[in-house]
Amino acid sequence: GESVGLHLPTLSVQEGDNSIINCAYSNSASDYFIWYKQESGKGPQFIIDIRSNMDKRQGQRVTVLLNKTVKHLSLQIAATQPGDSAVYFCAETYSGSARQLTFGSGTQLTVLP
Amino acid sequence: ETGVTQSPTHLIKTRGQQVTLRCSSQSGHNTVSWYQQALGQGPQFIFQYYREEENGRGNFPPRFSGLQFPNYSSELNVNALELDDSALYLCASSRDNSGNTIYFGEGSWLTVV
């Protein structure tokens, strides 16, 4: 996924609803994927990761789904809270790349009261 | 709290000057990567250090250089600063470069005027 310019995709959800953030990745050789949350003025915060030998992984209130056939990743957040408002990035990497991360374009999640 | 600390948090430099940014990796982590994040975009990989050696480099000119010390802390040096170097510089550490979780610091905000 190539990063795009200043106009991030946005998602607005009501507090308490579930959120789904999608990401298309670019490299079919990628074997490790990470979702990060980035609040304004802060560094990316690790949320959850998944390896290519899995289709689904669950954490606390979050689930990541991986579809390697169409090179698609999604992050599901259950019972979205105001503190979940942030920019969410997916990142991909593969074993021959010194594990450098390639970030997607990011999605701005806004939780409405 | 990721255990990755960066300094300084903010700084302003003049075009043509040089800057050094510092990073202390999480305890036990021997791999440090540096990323540049322009406003509204995802982080871009600059380079990685593994056991004091450069282990991969992104598409950045040679005036971006780095070091890793025996305690695995790291420096990013940028010479001949340009206005476009204004960005958030992020340090990320992991236990090694084989696919363990990668944690980011809060970053150093560099403004070039």
How would you explain this protein's 3D organization?
Chain A is an all-beta fold and 113 residues long. Chain A is built from no helices and ten strands. Chain A has strands at residues 10-14, 19-24, 32-38, 45-51, 56-58, 62-67, 72-77, 86-93, 102-103, 107-112. In chain A, strands 1, 3, 4, 8, 9 and 10 form a six-stranded mixed beta sheet that branches. In chain A, a hairpin with a 3-residue loop joins strand 5 and strand 6 (62-67). The radius of gyration of chain A is 14 Å and the shape is globular. The termini of chain A are far apart. Mean pLDDT of chain A is 91; it is low at 1-6. Chain B has 113 residues and is an all-beta fold. Helix content of chain B is 0%, strand content 50%. Chain B has no helices and eleven strands. In chain B, strands 2, 4, 5, 6, 9, 10 and 11 form a seven-stranded mixed beta sheet that branches. Chain B is globular, with a radius of gyration of 13 Å. Chain B starts with a strand and ends with a strand. The model of chain B has no long low-confidence stretch (mean pLDDT 94). The A-B interface holds A 1, 3-8, 31-32, 34, 36, 42-46, 49, 51, 89, 91, 93, 95, 97-106 and B 2, 4, 6, 31, 33, 35, 39-45, 48, 50, 55-56, 58, 88, 90, 92, 94, 97-99, 101-107.
Total DSSP E strands of chain A: 10
Order of helices and strands of chain A: EEEEEEEEEE
- Uncertain segments of chain A: 1-6
CA radius of gyration of chain B is 13 Å
Give the overall silhouette of chain B.
Answer: globular
Average pLDDT of chain A, to the nearest integer? 91
The percent of residues in helical segments of chain A reads under 10%
Q: Which class best fits the helix and strand makeup of chain A?
A: mainly beta
* Continuous helix count of chain B: 0
- The fraction of residues in strands of chain A falls at over 45%
Q: Number of helical runs of chain A?
A: 0
